[in-house]
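User: Second chain of the day. Same drill as before.
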Amino acid sequence: MIEKDFDISFIAALALNEKQIQQNYRPLIGVHKWFARRPGTLFRGLLLSEFGQGKLQDLYYQANQLPDIIVADPFMGGGTPILEANRLGCNVIGADINPMAHWIVEREIAALDIDKYRQGADQLLAHLREQLAGYYETTCQICSNRHAPVKYFIWVKTQVCSACQQTYDLFPGYTLATNNRHPRYVLICRHCGELNEVDNPKEPGSCYQCHEKLITTGPARANRCLCPHCQTINRYPGTPDAPYPHRMIALEYHCPTCRPAHKGRFFKKPDAHDLARYQEAEARFRQLSPQFVPDDPIPMGDETDRLHRWGYRRYADLFNSRQLFGLELSCRWIATSAQGEVQHALSTNLSDLLRYQNMLCRYDASALKSLDIFSVHGFPVGLIQCESNLLGIIHESKGTNVGSGGWTNIIEKYAKAKAYCHQPFEIRHHKGKKTQVSIRGEWIGPSNSIKKSPENKKNAIDSGAVACTLWPEQQPVDGLSKTESAQIPARIIDLRCVSSTELRLPPESIDAVFTDPPYFANVQYAELMDFCYVWLRRLVPPGEPCFQQHSTRNDDELTGNNTMGRGIEHFTAGMSSVFQNMKTALKTGAPLAFTYHHNQIQAYLPIAVALLDAGFACTASLPCPAEMGASIHINNTSSSIVDTIFVCRTTGTVSRRTLVETPEAIGRLVLNDVAKLHAAGVKVSAGDTRCISYGHLIRLAIWHLRTCWDSAAAPSEKIARVNEAIEQLGGWPKVNAYLSTYVTVPPRQQWVALEDEGAYDSCNEDGGEDDAVSF
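Assistant: Same format as last time:
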């Protein structure tokens, strides 16, 4: 069982390493962007702790088959619990209200002939290169090679002065590149636009071309900019009727001829030919009658209102003409020349490619790369934009990608993702070295092929919702003989595009629920995913049921949303409904385990209400790293990278030592968790410790309220009752006061437990042997 066999330190170390470079540990996430994916290592550990026979550390690197287990995930999102359970041989049931989530998981788990996919992708690239290659080339300034491929085009927004009516650039700064990955700083001259390489940006000297003084600070800041022509201060963005125009200001390119002897990157100011190439692409696009470019208006929303403030009214406004031209040609080829799962795969590739092929991408002056539109989980509107080479660039001798954001990048990523389905692996860390361990005998998907479920197969979910049910044809499994493969039962893969508030499963039909539910007031995934959806719904074959609606947004989505009037009571009622549905479907005593964290304790209250309404007790709250601390969207914030895994059951036992009632006792449990995370190499921050404490407070509040809970009370009353129970336990302030006595905070906010908690794991507070409390 998870409560006894889950090894916090072992899994935390794996999860921490995975989240640093998640695509190296779980390449399958490369199928398509999804947000805040939890570590696959975590859910593998949870599944093996619950159903495996043996020590977790031994089972983890072995092939496992759990063919008689049914696992459900009512909030499948990017599909991590579903994929990990399927890999272990479980039958899986996944549901999500967002059609993009359904499509992504379907592509992740669907069988794909990789050779056929490669052939189709090569044909697409050949077609696009024939049509577009010249628009992504420049003349090398060193050797005069006229066909040097451009990695990135850099653009600046321009504005018309309200006083003199002249156009000027909205430069926030003139540093194009720092010396982190280039020998010198690269500064843009504010007078002539020439690029200058300097050693010291604080004393940059004068422009080599026009001899004017170089500076690093631009005039555009704090939503104001000084017009260089008449010295009038103009505000931006104001209320523009159309998106701000852009002017091309720089290129980073790749020259195969000069590269062997050249130090650093290749930068240049665009010349007349570069500008003419863009204008030609623009003219060719105007001659088209687009079939796939979305003309959908951008609806109002918590995230999309930022786009409206900058004059973006339709999704097509977020792209320049060269991007639209290349994307339209890509869509036309995919729609007419590819078939079956290869067509689905290439359509998914195009959807994922959109993240880099738009005019909201930014150029990272330090890392010297494009930052995709979702790098901050929102719609960032900057003043400097980065346009990536649509085709992608392959290194002439290494065969690897140069730069990011092109078709070749997306294709290679997808091929690696699907290869991982056939040959999954784990990464073992030992004495500072990493070893890739192939797990022969496991795979992801139904098998090597897909067919629709036969009529005589009984679905685990009622009919009526959009579904994809996959059944395998028995074929040899990598690492197993034909005889051994034939003995493996067929897997059920039942994916549904439906609100889990309406999900009705047969009573006592599933063995576990593992999920990562929405966090109240979290990122508005539906608003962000519409950016891809409006393209994909035009590209998928007619009749795909998930793509009948015009948006991924749904009134029943369980997130707080001011624009749609969804508050905490809506979230609470929805979570309660889902947990009650799962309670009915779970076998007696089977676990509902989910990850959760938030900076505010109030965001946990609906979760506690939902569990109490469904009749669950929380038998454990376990910490595990879930985010990367350096992630752009949480870097330099007080956000936690540590999730609490809540393990819940309707009946069973609870360790007596965890049923405490004072802030001091809760604090000791928190310190014990912190010590285990430290043993895993996790640098636990104040935010992490706060979230670990919230987990224990919620778990204990549920325990104390479960026998006197009135599920018929008003949502506001139930939320108040949970809050009162937390206060009776002392709440976060008193737990924090205790922790401050036993914990020091070095400059980097690394918490250090000062007391030895070793004996506390096996003894209760009275010093006797730990025992279990039945419920």
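The chain is about 35% helix and 15% strand.

User: Great, on to the next one.
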